[in-house]
TrEMBL record:
Keywords: Transferase. This is Glycosyltransferase involved in cell wall biosynthesis. InterPro entries: Glyco_trans_1. It comes from Brachybacterium sacelli. Residues 335-482 form the Glycosyl transferase family domain. It comes from the Bacteria. Pfam families: Glycos_transf_1 (PF00534). The keyword Lyase does not apply.
């Protein structure tokens, strides 16, 4: 069975990760072995994967490879050890103060002179974190893994509290990676990978060459030669630095790669500027929409970059197909970020909506740093009684399915997966007409409404129009669901992926 690696920075719980999981399902159906590759340190790696559920549960047959987990497993001799436990629990000669906290307790340990020596938090019956102190300042912080053992120890700058060194451990106390950081900026000053059996340590100037070297070893070990899809800007750079002979390579951006005003002529986003300086080294570039592919040809020249267009899979992900529509209910599901998702625009339009349709109620699913500000804005606007903040939803599409319509107010997108999910569940969408995605998914006046970007009044009018004609909205939703199944199903898009893989084999 041939392996296809899907290379990310981390596997989260947002649109890109949902799209990658859908790709995995499709690749399994094509007879491939999907392996997701990540590079972030995850102390709860094993339990975190097992706990994924709803839209973000991993399909059976999908493997996840993480650089820290792989290196740790290779260096571990005693999986049941707990190298720091004795020191963590030691209280000889110390005075202890313990208080209850959510999910556990916090203990502070003082010497006989009353100086704080360490602080330990216990959750679910085991150590969750520990800090060691000198002169009343934390100088070391420990993080604990599924095994209960310390997996990472960070040395802190006593003056600022910034991390200056990170050391990563096996359960039996073998340090397999050391990283040094500049306190003021957090800039990496070097990473050392330790091989205890050979007695060698290899230095890398920063994460990219280290991660690329590990990824290259993973790819070289595969037979037959694997397929690899880099789906994050840092993943693109790392894949470009591997040996081209070790894989057939594809590069996919899930976002709009331009800064404001988000199209040709604007600078590339900072994170995408570096990999796309080397676009001519990318055998196959993929775009989620024809509009972005066209703009990339304009920016880089079609001889250097001629993307294939493969949209995200859009399918009906309701957990129950009998979910009833609630009259007057409008929904939005997104990360609560004022700068990117602009939920504040919807709140500013909402007084006009409830004035025209008093039964209207707005349900907001998702979490993020802007939630408190958005709740305060809803109070300021006098709409608190007609707005509910639901927080994180494991099955967000069920909310969409219960709405008369949903709304999208993003500043820029690569595709707009939540729009497609709403349409696939039979719920029309009112969206700002931005690059990229809304106009690819919504037929204005048929599947919902496209309104001018940033126009609060037009947004309100589009919502009011559908709320006043709920039967028409329901018909629009049914039509949209049929179109999503017809044009964005795994069966339809699998043929495009097969073409892209064949091209990658030819060009790589």
């Amino acid at each position: 069975m041939r392996t296809v690696f899907l290379v990310l920075h981390s596997l989260g719980r947002a649109g890109r990760s949902a799209a990658v999981i859908e790709q995995c399902r499709m690749f399994l159906a094509l007879g491939l072995k999907p392996v997701i590759v990540t590079f972030t340190y995850e102390p709860r790696f094993t339990s975190g994967l097992a706990a994924r559920k709803g839209d973000f549960a991993l399909p059976a047959g999908v493997e996840v490879r993480n650089i820290f987990h792989d290196l740790q497993q290779a260096a571990t001799q005693d999986q049941d050890a707990d190298w720091s436990r004795e020191q963590d629990l030691d209280r000889e000669g110390l005075l202890v103060s313990t208080i209850r906290i959510e999910g556990g307790e916090r203990s502070e340990y003082f010497d006989r002179a009353g100086r704080l020596v360490k602080r330990r938090e216990v959750k679910d019956g085991r150590t969750a974190s520990l800090a060691l102190f000198e002169h009343a300042r934390p100088v070391v912080r420990r993080e604990y893994e599924d095994s209960g053992a310390c997996g990472r120890e960070r040395t802190l700058d006593p003056a600022t509290g910034a991390t200056i060194e990170e050391r990563y451990f096996t359960p039996d106390g073998i340090c397999y990676v050391t990283r040094y950081l500049e306190p003021a900026s957090g800039r990496q000053l070097g990473a050392y990978v330790h091989h205890a059996t050979s007695g060698q340590s290899v230095r890398y100037s920063h994460n990219t060459p280290w991660h690329a070297a590990w990824l290259d070893q993973v790819l070289a070990a595969e037979s037959p030669r694997p397929l690899v899809i880099a789906q994050h800007p840092t993943a693109m750079t790392k894949l470009l630095d591997t040996d081209p002979a070790h894989s057939s390579r594809l590069f996919l951006s899930h976002v709009n790669i331009y800064q404001e005003p988000y199209g040709p002529g604007a600078p590339l986003r900072t994170d995408y500027a570096q990999p796309f300086r080397r676009v001519e080294e990318m055998p196959v570039v993929l775009s989620l929409t024809e509009a972005q592919a066209r703009d990339m040809r304009t920016t880089f020249g079609p001889d250097r970059c001629d993307p294939l267009v493969i949209p995200n899979v859009v399918r009906d992900r309701r957990t129950d197909t009998s979910i009833a529509t609630v009259s007057g209910r409008v929904g939005i599901v997104c990360r609560l970020s004022a700068t990117q998702k602009r939920v504040d625009h919807l709140l500013c339009a909402w007084p006009r909506v409830v004035a025209a349709v008093p039964r209207a109620h707005l349900e907001i699913g998702g979490h993020g740093g802007a939630r408190q500000d958005l709740e305060e804005l809803s109070a300021t606007l006098g709409i608190r009684d007609s707005v509910t903040f639901l927080g994180w939803l494991d099955d967000s599409v069920d909310l969409m399915a219960s709405c008369v319509l949903t709304v999208s107010t993003g500043r820029s997108e690569g595709f707009g997966l939540s729009i497609g999910e709403s349409l696939a569940a039979g719920t029309p969408v009112v969206s700002y007409d931005i690059d990229y995605g809304p106009s690819d998914l919504i037929r204005d006046g048929v599947d919902g409404a496209l309104v001018p970007d940033g126009d609060h009044e037009a947004l309100a009018r589009g919502i009011i129009r559908l709320l006043r004609r709920e039967r028409r909205a329901a018909r629009a939703g049914r039509s949209a669901a049929e179109r999503m199944a017809r044009e964005f199903s795994p069966e339809v898009l699998a043929a495009r992926w097969s073409t892209a893989f064949a091209l990658a084999d030819t060009r790589s």
